[in-house]
Amino acid sequence: MKKIFLLIMITLLLLTSCLLPSQGGTSTPEPIPPTSTSSPVDRSIYKDGLNPAYHSILNELPYASLYSIDFVIADDLYHVTGSETVTYTNAEDIALNEVKFRLFPNILGGEMTVDNVMVNGEAVTPNYALNNSLITVPFKDSLEPEETLTISMDFNITVPQTVELNYGVQAYFDEVLTLAHAYPVVTVYDDEGWNAEIPPQAGDVTYTDMSFFIVTVDAPKEVTLVGSGREINRQDNGSRQTVTYEAGPVRDFYIAASPEYEVFTKEARGVTLRFYTRDHLQSGAEQALDVAARSIEIYSERYAPYPYTELDFVSTPTLALGIEYPGMIAITEWIITPDHQYLEGTVAHEVGHQWFYNLVGNDQLDDPWLDESLSQFATLQYFTDAYGQGGSEGFRSSVAGRWERIGNVNIPVGLPVRAYSDGEYSGIVYGRGALFFEALRDKMGMEIFDTFIKDYVKNNSWNISTPEKLKAEAEKHCACDLTSLFDEWIYP
Ligand SMILES: [Zn+2]
């Protein structure tokens, strides 16, 4: 997910035909037998949040998980309780005996406990691993391919009041609450099995499949709440407010809240852009929205239409410059001033992630270059298209400068985050990796490269890409063998 980071910058639901969010607290549903997914799920609630170019996707992800989550944010703004029900379908070609969930707060400086864990309404006992950031929920009977069941649990979170770990993605700090990955998150099952590790401090935390969400947030009335997706209901209850959101297909659900937030808005290409920040940062926020609008124009032409009808920005105390979430971007507060040297590049980079991370997913821990290097390269294309070849020189030199700062060492671009030191991660994945895509373009020729990128996005949209898929798509377009180029830049 994210990141251009600060350090290196010193040198620089259950939903059928109606909306039925659960009511929170402990619920004991009737046992539900496994069902097949042959009857299509009604996902019409998600239509208005999607760009019309993508409406058909609602019928094309039959196995996507459906999360129904209720959050209650306490008056102190750093204690959160909730309940979650996931409708989970076995999308694999083997039977599954369990499903694994991440409890990210337990490795992000806070604490998360779960109880009343149930599968189809029957209590089960989960096993814990990875410093309590992973639970295994066992099934009584194995779940055959294409069969569906529901997993439900209650949870309790204490949010850290510091931003020390993982850029402070999850924190209550300086009157801003950021709840990133703050619900039990289903782990991807892939060729590694249930794919889970403790994420390094550099780099993004999650690796997830496309899912659908119905989320209700109950919070003190004095805060402005921002949630992923589209607001579909709002109620005031005395000193409290309850807001319901739909989001999907998306890879994650993010919530920010602050009593300080004002909202600034812009329309671009059928997308409503909003920036939630402090009143005195209005001019920086409006400039960021201009950059975001131009980024959406450029990337929609170059890659594919932007997926949603909304894109929200929030200012946060994160130690990263910016962090991407589906349909949502966190920008660190100190760069939200007009003409700040990092503002335009950061916004263009994070908007690029809406294509490279969200629309086209990847294992962000094992293959960070697939989203980070590509978002850096997208930013280069943004500056070129917005200002001409000369205008892109500034960003290109900052990209090249990252690699130069580590002596232009030929460390491969295609390593997992954990294999790099902090300086190497910036220099290689954000520097050398972007230059790789220039080299690839030079090798393929501009016109063929442009078609390749479009087809790469189209053919991997809503799915998970891999380095092999990217290379194969490129080789198909150039009708050439790119192994030596990948040996030189990407492969260990
Ligand atoms: Zn990034």
Explain what this protein looks like in three dimensions.
This protein is globular. The strands form six sheets. Strands 2, 3, 4, 6, 7, 10, 16, 18 and 19 form a nine-stranded mixed β-sheet that branches. Strands 1-24-25-23-22-21 form a six-stranded mixed β-sheet, covered by helices on one side. The chain has a four-stranded antiparallel β-sheet with strand order 8-9-5-13, with no helix packed on it. It has helices at residues 282-302, 343-352, 372-391, 393-404, 422-444, 446-460, 467-478, 483-489; strands at 4-5, 35-36, 65-73, 79-89, 96-102, 111-119, 122-123, 127-129, 134-143, 147-158, 171-173, 176-180, 185-186, 189-190, 193-194, 211-220, 224-227, 230-237, 240-250, 254-258, 262-268, 271-277, 310-316, 320-325, 328-332, 360-361, 463-464. The longest helix has 23 residues, at 422-444. It is an alpha+beta fold and 492 residues long. Helix content is 24%, strand content 32%. It has a domain at 4-263: Sandwich (Immunoglobulin-like). Zinc ion binds next to helix 3.
Structural descriptors:
Immunoglobulin-like; six-stranded mixed sheet; 8 helices; 492 residues
Q: Summarize this, please?
A:
The protein has helices spanning 282-302, 343-352, 372-391, 393-404, 422-444, 446-460, 467-478, 483-489; strands at residues 4-5, 35-36, 65-73, 79-89, 96-102, 111-119, 122-123, 127-129, 134-143, 147-158, 171-173, 176-180, 185-186, 189-190, 193-194, 211-220, 224-227, 230-237, 240-250, 254-258, 262-268, 271-277, 310-316, 320-325, 328-332, 360-361, 463-464. The protein has 492 residues and is an alpha+beta fold. Strands 2, 3, 4, 6, 7, 10, 16, 18 and 19 form a 9-stranded mixed sheet that branches. Strands 1-24-25-23-22-21 form a 6-stranded mixed sheet, with helices on one face. A 4-stranded antiparallel sheet has the order 8-9-5-13, with no helix packed on it.
